Amino acid sequence: MTDSGFRSAEDLPEGVSEHLGDLILALADNKRLLGIRYSDWLLGAPSVEAGIACSAMAQDEWGHARILYALLRDFGHDPAALEHERASGEYHSSELLDRDVGSWEEFLALNFLWDTALSVQFEMLAESRYEPIHYKVRKLLEEERFHFDHGQGWTARLLSAEGGRAALTEAFGAAWNACLCWFGPEDDPLIATLAAHGIVRRGAAGARARWLERVGPLAAETGLARDAGSGWVSTREPLWEGYLARRRRTAEGGPDEDSLARVRGDRNRELLMD
Amino acid sequence: MDFGAVLRETRGGRELPPPPAFAEPAADLAERARRALYEVADPEFPISIVDLGLVRGVEGDEEAGSVTVHLTFTATACPCMDFIQWDVRERLLELDGVLKVEIVTEWDPPWTTAAISVRGRKLLRSVGVVT
Prior knowledge:
The complex is a heterodimer of chains A (274) and B (131). A two-stranded antiparallel ribbon of chain A has the order 1-2. In chain A, a hairpin with a 4-residue loop joins strand 1 (225-227) and strand 2 (232-234). Chain A has 274 residues and is mainly α. Chain A has helices at 16-39, 48-71, 79-84, 104-125, 131-159, 164-182, 189-196, 204-219, 257-264, and strands at residues 225-227, 232-234. Chain A has one domain: Ferritin (Up-down Bundle), CATH 1.20.1260.10. With 131 residues, chain B is an alpha+beta fold. Chain B has a single domain, classed as 2-Layer Sandwich (GMP Synthetase, Chain A, domain 3). The longest helix of chain B has 13 residues, at 81-93.
């Protein structure tokens, strides 16, 4: 890391700390909830191998969430309270993760589109001047490579199957706007501030373009993306109505009762150790 | 059943291969500590955390009686992270003059199988694990 890095949140310029704390909390909450959604498919996935992959991916996501919640101590949060004591409306996770998804196609929207959207945000942090996250991102991204391979493989597989394309088009279409909005509006002051200080590599538009570069080639087959020559673009404009900048989601609410109990580990409390 | 108490108060019964034979006595506290870590097992494989390449560095302060261990783990979701850290602390606090153990977790560069020692590879091969 260069000498111009920030060793702790205390060293960050005014205003940056709050924005970065919000971004890390959103990443942590999404990781934790995504792990729950992956775990929903340990049994019932189309193949035993896919179930095992879901188990491994769930474990990865919880590991990433644990690291990120611990990091939030640097921003004045109590990680234990963040993990175990919040109400549903306080979560900064996507509406896509609020409840169990009903089909494998919807699951793939999470695995391929949403998980990749989170990874792209981590890519943006890979050279961050905020050193505590900089030194964790490489490991996280390395583990995420397999998630992308899994989502990509299954998406390609269903696109080539009878009826698969229509079902995927519907599922991807339902998740698409949340993914586009995750990166924030082009003039998002939160991300722009972080980019200006070298905390993230690119602004909201750049991150969204990177995500489209990764998912575009397959999403194009559902009509949601196209190759514009100079890069992959969405065929739909993001709809910002109801967008909550700090929570980085486009709808009020939060995880449903069952998800909340699981994500907070309510039933595991008796096993918690000091 | 209080599983927390079970985990705190009991130990697994697996035996580790003996640590390597060192020709010279340890020169300082850091080296004594590093050698002691050959007696801390990875909870999943029958090799030490040193041979597995989890120990990135050890520092010792004789005067303060403190040891700092830089550790990494094979995966961010390694379910054994807490166990390993407890075992590291427990073993190092048994050393003469050690009153305090600090563990610093490092993720960069990420752990890969290249970090496993030659001795570790042999031990793993002997139990049917190819690296």
